[in-house]
Specification:
This protein is an alpha/beta fold and about 280 residues long. Helix 4 packs parallel to helix 5. The longest helix has 22 residues. The mean pLDDT is about 95.
Length: about 280
């Protein structure tokens, strides 16, 4: 069985949204382990938050399965360029689109760029997220609450609405939810609330798009070792991160990639409205 880093981790703190190279240990995105088999040959995928963490792992896996990839990200140019290089090394096209998905016009521009540069969209992965930790509800500003919803759920609506007219039967929409959708962490109140909304949005979307032949599903990760952790948490919440699940460690981004590949694969044609839990043994009911 493969060995994965376990807590305790070094004490570390980064400014939001965090950078991969500053993390210790460095996350594993499947750079040296993921081997494709052509499951997504010729597909065109849009991945938000594709520069690092789960998004980077998905971009690598999709490319090695034969897909061209548009990587949407905020402003982490170094991370985004590293991901794009990994996609290109797999022999696939990588398109980088920086910008803030809080802006509905930018969401529409992402879709337009994918259509122009990739020739269409077969897979939309709504993965980008914002989170912050607060011990008291009074500590959550109105602006923080609105930001979390704007990034995590409103942008998902804007991107999906723009993408669907360009998606053919057999296309797939994959949204990143969280274990927090079913078991909300009280210190992540805004984030957890949006993740519950994502799960509900996806369930309704799967029904709404079924006649068009477009599938919609979610992946619900547990604790995953990404730049979001040292940039949004402090102290023992970082050093002991992931210890609370049955596997006693956080997941690595690479460990989620196969879930996204399965949901994007045309052979999963009867899977829609589902939530795939990747939680290190923590059950989602």
């Amino acid at each position: 069985m493969a060995s994965h880093p376990e807590p305790p981790f070094p004490d570390q703190q980064q400014p939001m949204p965090g950078r991969t190279d500053a993390m210790s240990p460095r996350p594993d995105h499947g750079e040296d382990s993921y081997v494709g088999s052509g499951r997504l040959a010729g597909k065109r995928a849009v991945i938000t938050g594709g520069d690092s963490g789960i998004g980077r792992a998905v971009a690598i896996a999709f490319a090695r399965e034969g897909a061209d990839v548009l990587i949407s990200y905020l402003d982490e140019d170094d991370d985004a360029n590293e991901t794009a290089e990994l996609v290109r090394k797999a022999g696939r096209t990588a398109v980088l689109v920086p910008g803030d998905i809080q802006d509905p016009a930018h969401c529409r521009a992402i879709v337009e760029k994918a259509v122009a540069d990739l020739g269409g969209i077969d897979v939309l992965v709504n993965n980008a997220a914002h989170q912050a930790t607060f011990k008291e509800i009074g500590d959550i500003s109105d602006e923080e609450w609105q930001l979390t919803f704007a990034v995590n759920i409103h942008a998902m609506f804007y991107l999906t609405k723009a993408a669907v007219p360009h998606m053919q039967p057999g296309s797939s929409i994959i949204n990143t939810a969280s274990v927090n959708a079913d078991k909300p962490n009280p210190t992540l109140l805004a984030y957890a609330t949006t993740k519950g909304a994502i799960q509900n949005f996806t369930g309704g979307l799967a029904q709404l798009l079924a006649e068009k032949g477009i599938r919609a599903n979610t992946v619900a990760p547990g604790p995953i070792w990404t730049p979001l952790i040292p940039s949004t948490m402090k102290g023992d919440r970082v050093t002991e991160f992931g210890k609370q699940v049955p596997m006693k460690r956080p997941g690595q981004p690479a460990e989620l990639a196969t879930a996204y590949v399965m949901l994007a694969d045309p052979l999963s044609s009867y899977v829609s409205g589902a939530t795939i839990a990747v939680t290190g043994g923590h059950p989602i009911l």
